[in-house]
Design brief:
By secondary structure, the protein is mostly helical. It contains two helices and no strands. The radius of gyration is 38 Å and the shape is rod-shaped. The N and C termini lie far apart (118 Å).
């Protein structure tokens, strides 16, 4: 009877070890999956940021080109000059 009790204790002890080993192995698998996912997300995030930066840079360059074109346009320069003259005349009148 005593031998059976010891064997039962040993079996229980072995089962606990197996359970903890299985849990440890599962955790290792989960941790590795998390690392892979983290690496993938960081890589895709970096690529998305670079793409947005490139697109923004392109849009800014297009806007600069358009603004420079407008500023060199004689009509725009004439309009700015007319407005400046009106402001000067108004300031003289007020004074």
């Amino acid at each position: 009877m005593e031998i059976l009790a010891k064997m039962a204790q040993q079996m229980a002890h072995i089962e606990k070890k197996l359970d903890s080993k299985a849990d440890t192995e599962k955790m290792a698998v989960v941790e590795e999956a998390v690392k892979v996912l983290d690496t993938k997300i960081c890589g895709e995030y970096g690529a998305a940021v670079k793409s947005l930066e490139k697109q923004l840079s392109s849009e800014m360059q297009n806007m600069r080109t358009m603004m420079n074109g407008e500023l060199t346009n004689l009509d725009t320069k004439d309009s700015i000059t007319e407005v400046e003259e009106k402001v000067v005349k108004l300031a003289e009148t007020v004074c």
